[in-house]
Design goal:
By secondary structure, the chain is mostly helical. The chain folds into 3 domains: about 50 residues, CD2-Gal4, CATH 4.10.240; about 150 residues, no CATH class; about 120 residues, no CATH class. It is about 60% helix and about 0% strand. Keywords: DNA-binding, Nucleus, Transcription, Transcription regulation. This is Zn(2)-C6 fungal-type domain-containing protein.
Length: about 375
C-alpha cells in the first residue's frame, strides 16, 4: 500500500522548511521549534516564496553569524553595502545598549552622557560605529543571558569583524568627516577586546590577548595624533572624553616622552589611583600607562622578554580597579596567571607581590 503523503503547505516556518520537516504552523512558535528551543520565524502574510526567503535571511543573518550580506537592487558603495539590516536581532542589541550597556562604561555622569547620547548619534551616520555598538551589546548579553551565549557570541563576532573591515578601508582616507567615527569605533573595539570571554585555564593565549590590547590602544592614540583631524575629534561632542579631571593634579606632560620608561609611567599610574581613590578612577586613568609605554618596552613585550612580562604583571594591579564593570571582571587575575605561566622559574618570584595582592599566591608553587 503506497505511503500517504501529507499535504504540503507554504505557510510553515522557515526553520521547518530548512530541515524539510512538516510544520504544524502553531503560532507564535511551532511545536518543532519549541521542542528544539530554536527561533521560530514565519513569513509575513501574502509574501512570495522569494520574498519570504529574503526576509528570513535578513532576520537570521545576525543570529546565525552568517557572513553573507543581503543584496539590494540599488547601487551602493562597498562600505555602505556592509551596513546592517535592521531586523529584530539588531533592534534587540540597540535596545540593550540604550538601556544598559551604555551605563557600564564609565561611572562619571558627564562621560555616561557621551556614551548614552552622543555615541549612538555617530552610529546613525556611521555603519562602522553602529556595528561596534551592536558588537559590544551582544557581548554584554553573552554575560547576562548565558543560555543564549552561542547566539549572542556569533552576533558579536559578526558585527565586530565587519566593522573592522570597514574601519580598515576608512583609514585609507581619513578626513574631518570620518575621523570622529573612526575614533569612536577604536574606543568600542578596545572595550570589545577586554570583554571577550576568557576561559579560566587558557593562559597560553594571554600574551596574544595583551598584544591585541596594546595594538588597539596605541592605534586609538595614533588617530588623535593626526594633527589635521585632532580638533574635529576633541572639540566636538566627544570633548568630555578628553577632560582629565583629577589627572590634572599630577601635571603630566601632554605628549608621550621618549625618555620615560615603563616603570616610571607605571609608578605614575599607581600615584593617580592612590590620589583619586579607586571609585573615582576612569577607564582613561587605568589605561594611561599603555598609552605612555615607550616603544622599546612594547618591542620587548612582543618578544616576550621576561622583564617586560613582569612589568605588565604589576600593571594587573591597576587593571583590578576596573573590575567594577562587566567587561573587565576577572581580567587582572586571568592576565597575571597567564604571565606567570609564560615565565621561567628564575623570574616567577618577581611576581610574588602582585600575586599576593590578588590572592593568587596559594594557587601557585
Amino acid at each position: 500500500m503506497p505511503r500517504q503523503s501529507h499535504k504540503k503547505s507554504r505557510k510553515g516556518c522557515q526553520q521547518c522548511k530548512d530541515r524539510k520537516v512538516k510544520c504544524d504552523e502553531t503560532r507564535p512558535k511551532c511545536t518543532n521549534c519549541t521542542k528544539r528551543s530554536v527561533e521560530c520565524l514565519f513569513p509575513p502574510p501574502g509574501a512570495t516564496t522569494r520574498s519570504r526567503s529574503r526576509v528570513y535571511q535578513a532576520q537570521q543573518r545576525s543570529l546565525q553569524g552568517s557572513r553573507e550580506e543581503i543584496s539590494t537592487t540599488t547601487h551602493m558603495s562597498p562600505i555602505e553595502d556592509m551596513s546592517p539590516a535592521m531586523g529584530v536581532a539588531e533592534m534587540v542589541l540597540l535596545h540593550q545598549y540604550s538601556v544598559s550597556t551604555c551605563f557600564t562604561i564609565s561611572r562619571n555622569l558627564a562621560l555616561r552622557t557621551v556614551w548614552q547620547i552622543h555615541i549612538p548619534h555617530f552610529g546613525f551616520s556611521s555603519p562602522i560605529v553602529l556595528r561596534g555598538i551592536m558588537a559590544l551589546s551582544a557581548l554584554h548579553l553573552v554575560q547576562l543571558k548565558p543560555e543564549y551565549q552561542d547566539s549572542y557570541l556569533d552576533q558579536a563576532e559578526l558585527h565586530h569583524e565587519t566593522a573592522l573591515q570597514m574601519a580598515a578601508a576608512a583609514l585609507q582616507k581619513i578626513d574631518k568627516e570620518n575621523a570622529p567615527s573612526i575614533y569612536v569605533f577604536s574606543l568600542l573595539a578596545c572595550i570589545f577586546s577586554c570583554a571577550k570571554p576568557r576561559k579560566p585555564e587558557d593562559f597560553w593565549k594571554v600574551i596574544d590577548q595583551i598584544i591585541e590590547w596594546l595594538n588597539l590602544i596605541r592605534g586609538t592614540v595614533s588617530i588623535l595624533l593626526l594633527n589635521e583631524h585632532d580638533g574635529f575629534i576633541k572639540n566636538g561632542p566627544l570633548s568630555p572624553l578628553f577632560i582629565l579631571g583629577h589627572r590634572k593634579s599630577l601635571e603630566w606632560e601632554a605628549r608621550i616622552q621618549p625618555s620615560f620608561n615603563a616603570i616610571e609611567n607605571l609608578g605614575k599610574s599607581f600615584a593617580t589611583i592612590h590620589e583619586m581613590g579607586s571609585r573615582n578612577c576612569e577607564t582613561a586613568d587605568i589605561f594611561m600607562w599603555l598609552v605612555r609605554a615607550p616603544d622599546h618596552y612594547l618591542h620587548f613585550f612582543h618578544q616576550r622578554k621576561p622583564e617586560a612580562l613582569v612589568i605588565f604583571g604589576f600593571f594587573c594591579m591597576i587593571i583590578r580597579e576596573l573590575e567594577w564593570t562587566w567587561w573587565m571582571q576577572g581580567a587582572s587575575s586571568h592576565l597575571l596567571q597567564g604571565i606567570y605561566y609564560h615565565l621561567g622559574e628564575e623570574h616567577r618570584c618577581w611576581l610574588h607581590w602582585p600575586m599576593q595582592q590578588l590572592g593568587l599566591v596559594s594557587s601557585f608553587p
